[in-house]
């Protein structure tokens, strides 16, 4: 089927059928592109991508890829990170409006003011930040290597950790550091997965493993449930999205309660078809991630848009922090 036969109006009306798949793959080849998808993308986007994975795995693939174009099916800071790591490549995101409430919770000016209050502190920023914030950062991290990144900093150095307060609390617990200051930002999707909801779902599913993303509002409650023996501690795992896939392949559990954005369930069900995966909160859907529709992907490939640009000076200042992130910790996270 030719491209002309695929209806692009309305944009959301494109059917992700065999013709769509053939056309997307043909255009990817024609453009010498690599198609990357985050684990929270729509199932049809995950399935057509060359690589689906977590933020760290996708950053590593973007840095190592020989393709001349990176098509990033994820949110804007992810595509921006790819551009920082691969400045000579064309980086496209199918909809540049796909933002992130967590990345919006700190600006470059706010970070500069915070640094001025703590001279000499090492700044660790989660990858969910703008290029401007990364340019003020010493080391970036993702959820899969945040603990390793902070553990790599000499114990006597103060640390400023931003912007996610729940991930920051997890890092403080795991590293046992008391000289870590945490910015009070959050992701509206993960913060909405709360402790009482988790406790209720765990009580109703006593044999289920709990896979909890450290950005979740319920992460502390999960550890409380384990600490009090309400749920056996070996059933409670705090994991990045990529580590959830690895753990799904390893667990002996027959059912798993998953606390993160619901797009994750697709990868988990593919990784371990014999396990029943249930969302702790099935309303936890990220509207930004879901802006990358099949129609938007097709349009991106046909029209070479939306191209992601990062001011070269900002990118140069951010690059060291992002490269350190890519070098530290967990090698897994994506297929
Ligand atoms: P990871 O893929 O690094 O676990 O991140 C989750 C996330 O919220 C990305 O937006
Ligand atoms: Fe940002 Fe939260 Fe959406 Fe991830 S799920 S992209 S952290 S708003």
TrEMBL record:
Iron recorded as keyword: yes
A family per Pfam: NadA
InterPro entries per UniProt: NadA, NadA_sf
One GO cellular component, as annotated: cytosol
Keyword entries, A-Z: 4Fe-4S, Cytoplasm, Iron, Iron-sulfur, Metal-binding, Pyridine nucleotide biosynthesis, Transferase
Signal peptide start and end residues: none
Enzyme nomenclature, EC number: 2.5.1.72
GO molecular function, one term: metal ion binding
PANTHER family (alphabetical): QUINOLINATE SYNTHASE, CHLOROPLASTIC, QUINOLINATE SYNTHETASE A
NCBIfam families attached to this UniProt entry: nadA, PRK09375.1-2, PRK09375.1-4
Protein name: Quinolinate synthase
Record organism: Actinokineospora bangkokensis
């Amino acid at each position: 089927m030719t491209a002309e036969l695929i209806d692009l109006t309305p944009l959301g009306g494109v059917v992700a059928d065999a013709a769509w798949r053939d056309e997307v793959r043909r255009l990817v080849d024609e453009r010498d592109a690599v198609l990357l998808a985050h684990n929270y993308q729509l199932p049809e986007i995950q399935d057509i991508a060359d690589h689906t994975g977590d933020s760290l795995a996708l950053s590593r693939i973007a840095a190592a890829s020989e393709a001349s174009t990176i098509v990033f099916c994820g949110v804007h800071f992810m595509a921006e990170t790819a551009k920082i790591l691969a400045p000579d490549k064309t980086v496209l995101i199918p909809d540049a409006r796909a933002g992130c409430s967590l990345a919006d919770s700190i600006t470059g000016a706010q970070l500069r003011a915070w640094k001025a209050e703590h001279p000499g502190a090492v700044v660790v920023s989660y990858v969910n930040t703008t290029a401007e914030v990364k340019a003020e950062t010493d080391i970036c991290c993702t959820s899969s290597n945040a603990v390793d990144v902070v553990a790599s900093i000499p114990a006597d150095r103060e640390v400023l950790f931003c912007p996610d307060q729940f991930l920051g609390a997890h890092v403080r617990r795991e590293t046992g550091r008391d000289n870590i200051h945490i910015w009070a930002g959050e992701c509206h999707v993960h913060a909405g997965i709360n402790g009482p909801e988790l406790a209720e779902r765990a009580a109703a599913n006593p044999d289920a493993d709990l896979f909890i993303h450290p950005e979740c509002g319920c992460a502390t409650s999960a550890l409380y449930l384990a600490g009090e023996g309400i749920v056996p501690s070996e059933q409670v795992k705090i994991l990045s999205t990529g580590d959830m896939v690895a753990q799904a392949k390893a667990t002996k559990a027959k059912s798993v309660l998953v606390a993160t954005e619901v797009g994750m369930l697709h990868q988990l069900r593919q990784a371990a078809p014999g396990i029943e995966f249930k969302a702790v909160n099935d309303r936890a859907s990220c509207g930004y991630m879901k802006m990358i529709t099949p129609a938007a992907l097709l349009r991106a490939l046909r029209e070479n848009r939306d191209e992601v640009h990062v001011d070269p000076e900002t990118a140069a200042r951010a690059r060291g922090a992002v490269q350190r992130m890519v070098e530290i910790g967990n090698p897994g996270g994506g297929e």
